[in-house]
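Please decode residue identities from the backbone states below.
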């Protein structure tokens, strides 16, 4: 789904009090993501894929107005930095496992 996002819209989002209020939460989430073991997550997923499957991607964390979880394009995965999702998954496993495993 395409949504227009103008320079003014970006400025409004970046300077919004709502985003400023989430700054600490977003920073903590990003710090947890930097420690995530993506290799282990991929190893857990591979048994569900064909024997010759390979996972090669670069994960780009994004902070944006829409909170859909991710966009996959080519070998790029754009994941929304979401403290709520990370908090749920980190109670049982690595910070990004809920996002990666579905």
């Amino acid at each position: 789904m395409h949504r227009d996002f103008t320079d003014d819209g970006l400025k409004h989002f970046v300077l919004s009090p709502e985003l400023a209020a989430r700054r600490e939460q977003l920073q903590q989430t990003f710090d947890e993501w930097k420690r995530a073991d993506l290799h282990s997550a991929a190893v857990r997923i591979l048994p569900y894929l064909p024997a010759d499957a390979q996972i090669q991607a670069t994960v780009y964390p994004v902070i944006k107005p829409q909170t859909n979880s991710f966009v996959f394009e080519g070998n790029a995965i754009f994941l929304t930095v979401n403290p709520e999702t990370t908090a749920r998954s980190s109670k049982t496993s690595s910070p990004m496992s809920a996002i990666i495993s579905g």
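Observation: The longest helix spans residues 23-34.
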